[in-house]
Input
Amino acid sequence: MSQPTAGRRPFRLIVDASPVRVLGLSLSERNRRVAERCGATSDDAAALPTLTLPPRIAITPMLLTALPPSSGTVHIMSEATALPIVWSAANTDPAAPVRTLQAPAGAVLDVSTPAARYVASWTLLRASGKPGDGWLSKHLHRKISRVFSYLFLQLGLTANIATGLTFLLGAAGALLMAQTTHVTMIAGALLYWGSSIADGIDGEMARLTFSESAFGEQLDTGVDQATHLLALTGAGVGWWRQGIGAQGWALAATVAVGVPVILLWAMTLVRRARKSPHFFVVTKPIELAVARAARDTGALPLRAAAAIFVLFRREAFSCSFFVVSLMTGLRVVYPALVATSLAIVAATFLFYRTPINVALEAASGK
Output
């Protein structure tokens, strides 16, 4: 089993083996994984408090964080089941009085019928977002990605398979962008935006099945950045096929060199601030650090840069990519916009490196 969460006293979990499945996991396995995150252990040698679950309920971390100090026996009641959840201290006297508590709302989910399991699944899905989700993710992308997360988990697929499908979607978009017509540009940009929406599926699946891993995070981040580069490459190839011209080559070279340089620069800043051993790291902390540095310093250029950095979120960038594709089939527009943005980002990194680093380190707790 996994190590207990810091600050949580270890306990033992007693749960019936159940054939019922909820979002890709058997009910007993799901409850065990939830409990492991909050301190459950398989160590039978130590005298530990015990949590005994009645059948046909799914618990959430909310229940475990609400457990009282282990003393005697506590019956925790919930509308999800007529039977109590029993929280018992080690070596409890059977004759001792039993206390009764009410479980917090949403801490226990009824999964006793197919209809109840459907409701429970969507309750869990709606809670599967990330605290840093932007407006577009919260109000549009997650509404779509959760449908696919539900379907994929029902089919028994893994988060890494979802990551691979996201890459294929982005690659197909890039292939269409490499053609020369306006229609193929629109179709390619739409698939690129779709891959951005699909990028949320693997994370949702991993969080819902408690299967997050360093490898999965690296794979997700690498695919995210690769599909971004593929979209720009596809638009560039389409531009070349339309007729790039001498000045166009200079602009293309600027973008071709500038995008990976800025990306590597951003990842380096994040790695140093977080002392991360991984090569691929998410660059969103840069956006948050620029916004924080703008608030701390009050510098007008930083405030303007913070607005530009929001557009560099993949969710916003891919959406903007699609909107621009509706306006024009000329591929030169995309490298021109990217080159302008790269210049702003580079200037921000150069002239405001210190406040950005301070903001990054503060966010990382260093």
